[in-house]
Amino acid sequence: xxxxxxxxxxxxxxxxxxxxxxxxxxxxxxxxxxxxxxxxxxxxxxxxxxxxxxxxxxxxxxxxxxxxxxxxxxxxxxxxxxxxxxxx
Length: 88
What we know:
Low-confidence stretches: 82-88
Mean pLDDT: 86
Number of strands: 3
Shape: globular
Radius of gyration: 12 Å
């Protein structure tokens, strides 16, 4: 598992990359959950559970984040991997 600082940096960087890509993603993947790693969207999933299971299996160092493809404003904590709409 990566250090807390490395994880926080990854989540912040991924979120900025996600925000930049969001307009295009809304037209193709609205309502899905994107797994991001190193500022790139790796895969989309229908649920946070599926996204988290994939990410945990693929990235044991914990350096990933999960974002819902939505135009709603969300709060993201550096300690969080996912922003959930309540679907799991």
